[in-house]
Write a structure and sequence with these properties.
Helices cover 44% and strands 20% of the residues. By secondary structure, the protein is α+β, with helices and mostly antiparallel strands. The longest helix is centred in the first third of the chain and has 16 residues. The radius of gyration is 19 Å and the shape is globular.
Length: 248
């Protein structure tokens, strides 16, 4: 299958939260997230797989509150496997497919990064600390940070290569968790208003859990922490007043 923007995004989604299995002659792709991401799966992921592979997928709630899809289609599994994604555990060895990296195509890069961010990335806002900052900056979560976290050193390197190509400033923070049995962690971090706006213009998001945080920040200049998706949507639709969630 020829590389396309849609396929590049599916690769990013799979790199973030996908799992390929082979059981005898049967293959399956599982992609899952939180129940809050139901809209993302029901609409965007469904339409993406319909467009790229001409198949119907049916998201549903699985055990332990996971919401997602299981796709038992040999063609889908073969395409992803041929692009370098292994069957079985992939977290420590996953990379960006060579065909995407070698393309040096901004659209393919941005779609892959959007898929990765929407499934396994984080957008948050923090306060500033210290008397040198304004009262607003010290009291409200206003400074944006995007994090793309992985235990694959090669994936982190590939993500940095693509971000640099897209001229989005970033840095790598890596650390060993307190439990020595846990894998070493690589965190690609993008800080600041200018870089967030650049991200949203070039890459964007189709996941309302992430996108709603950005939209609340755009509307109010800050985004309170620990809000649910419903609360953020109610703020945006003016069903809820910002003062009602200030204690969050």
């Amino acid at each position: 299958m020829d590389l396309s923007p849609g396929l590049a995004e599916i690769c990013g989604i799979h790199a973030g939260d996908g799992h390929l299995r082979k059981r005898g002659n049967k293959t399956e792709l599982e992609i899952g997230g939180s129940i809050e991401e139901k809209d993302y799966y029901n609409n965007h992921i469904v339409s993406l797989f319909e467009k790229v592979f001409q198949i119907n997928v049916n998201p549903r709630l699985y055990s332990k509150g996971t919401y997602g899809v299981i796709i038992m289609n040999r063609d889908v599994a073969n395409v992803l496997n041929s692009m370098g994604f292994p069957y079985g555990k992939k977290s420590q060895i996953v990379t960006v497919p060579i065909s995407i990296l070698d393309s040096k195509n901004k659209i393919f890069f941005s779609k892959f990064l959007r898929g990765l961010f929407d499934t396994d990335g984080h957008l948050g806002f923090r306060k500033f600390y210290g008397k040198g900052y304004s009262k607003f900056k010290r009291n409200f979560h206003n400074y944006p940070t995007i994090r793309l976290t992985t235990v694959s050193k090669e994936l982190a390197k590939d993500v940095i290569t693509m971000l640099n190509f897209l001229e989005i400033r970033n840095f790598l923070y890596s650390y060993q968790p307190k439990n020595p049995r846990d894998s070493y962690v690589y965190c690609v971090i993008i800080n600041g208003v200018e870089e967030l706006e650049k991200w949203m213009k070039i890459i964007g998001s189709k996941n309302s859990v992430k996108l709603s945080r950005y939209l609340v920040w755009k509307k109010f200049g800050f985004c309170p922490t620990k809000l649910t998706l419903v609360q953020r949507e109610d703020l945006l639709n003016e069903k809820l007043h910002i003062n009602d969630v200030m204690s969050s």
